[in-house]
Design goal:
This protein has 380 residues and is α+β, with helices and mostly antiparallel strands. The protein is 53% helix and 9% strand.
């Protein structure tokens, strides 16, 4: 599994601001807490998005990129006996690829700036609240109430993550408790930040560069919420992606808070290294055609780590959600459903999507998965 790195806008943050940074990242989905490992020596893995590997640009392209903006259009860049090429000729010849690279750069820069701005604003709001109360930021964060980890939670974590590893529960119980405590503390701080930002009317006003607003074809896609909602959230997901499975909780919170103002649209982006993801996407599309996309959506994500490819792998899920199995098989084996998945993939790649989940709010890429308070800024 590869991950997208998260870089702080600051160097050497203080302990309290680092806590804020982690909490903001948790809200954004930029990275999660290091997953539990039964090996104390295992390094933490900062993961929150499953991505396709992207090869580095070739040296020639890197050189061209470094020259871009410093070379005059009329400057001669190649010469031979009887002819020459100017930089304008090169730009004209490669204009489509150059436009793609510029759009990808602009999207990446915008999401990075957006994430850094969100973190910086959260730190300043915490400082402001601490000053109002006459305490230090550390003392303010220390006031956050963290629920006690129960034996039932420890046991449930063990059963879900370690029961097949052959490690006795008693041996790892203390480590599980520490992991869950850290996770709950991060979630509690993130909730406090949401509340403070809401009280302060926090709003991000960073304007996107021209050309990065995606215009998706959403016709026939599964969605929740009114078509004329103020905010349209497009989510690209993969049914074998564990982070996408977790995103369901966040989507539910959006719908509960903004039933009339937010529309959520699901689009497919099955990753190549997930063997059953394409089959699951086709199964979900076929379920949509029988009016049962969302039951199939839940069913597939409930079994995201146990999915099998092909119609035989999807058959039990179709039966469980009550599909007409004759129609389901005919749809699954047709090219039409597969073509719809390919169209989603094409739209995702055109918009610069590299991993899942990937979120766009009113056509703009969002770094991670937005919280309810993030959506509030768009609804307002």
């Amino acid at each position: 599994m590869t991950t997208r790195s998260h870089r702080s806008a600051q160097s050497g943050p203080t302990h309290w601001s680092r806590l804020v940074l982690v909490a903001v990242a948790s809200v954004l989905g930029t990275y999660a807490l290091a997953p539990f490992s039964s090996s104390p020596s295992s390094p933490p893995a900062a993961t929150a998005m499953t991505t396709q590997a992207t090869p580095p640009a070739p040296p020639a392209l890197q050189s061209a990129q470094s020259a871009k903006g410093t070379t005059r259009p009329d400057e001669v860049v190649a010469r031979w006996a009887g002819g020459e090429l100017r930089y304008a000729d090169l730009q004209q010849h490669a204009k489509e690829r150059i436009a793609e690279l510029k759009a990808a750069h602009d999207r990446e820069l915008y999401t990075l700036e957006q994430s850094a701005l969100k973190t910086l604003m959260a730190q300043r709001i915490v400082q402001q609240e601490a000053e109002r109360l006459g305490v230090s930021p550390e003392a303010l964060l220390a006031r956050v109430k963290v629920p006690k980890v129960t034996d039932a939670q420890k046991r449930a974590f063990f059963e879900e993550n370690l029961v097949d590893e052959g490690v006795p529960f008693e041996k790892v119980k203390a480590e599980i408790a520490e992991h869950l405590k850290d996770e709950q503390r991060t979630q509690a701080i993130a909730a406090m930040l949401d509340e403070l930002e809401s009280q302060a009317g926090a709003t991000l006003l960073l304007s996107p560069p021209p050309g990065i607003v995606a215009d998706f074809d959403l016709d026939g896609r599964a969605s929740l919420g009114p078509d004329d909602a103020k905010v349209t959230v497009v989510v690209f997901e993969d049914f074998e992606c564990p982070f996408c499975a977790e995103t369901r909780k966040t989507i539910k919170s959006w719908r509960e808070r903004y039933p009339s103002d937010v529309r959520v649209v699901f689009m497919h982006f099955p990753l190549e290294f997930h063997a059953a993801a394409k089959s699951a996407a086709i199964a979900a599309e076929c379920a949509r055609r029988q009016g049962k996309f969302w039951p199939m959506y839940d069913r597939l994500f409930d079994h995201h780590d146990k999915l099998a490819s092909g119609f035989d792998g999807m058959r039990p899920h179709g039966e469980k959600v009550g599909l007409d199995m004759t129609a389901f098989e005919a749809c699954f084996r047709s090219d039409d459903a597969a073509d719809r998945i390919e169209d989603d993939i094409d739209q995702a790649e055109d918009a610069g999507v590299e991993g899942t989940p990937s979120v766009f709010i009113n056509g703009l890429p969002f770094d991670g998965v937005p919280s309810v308070s993030d959506l509030a800024q768009y609804v307002r």
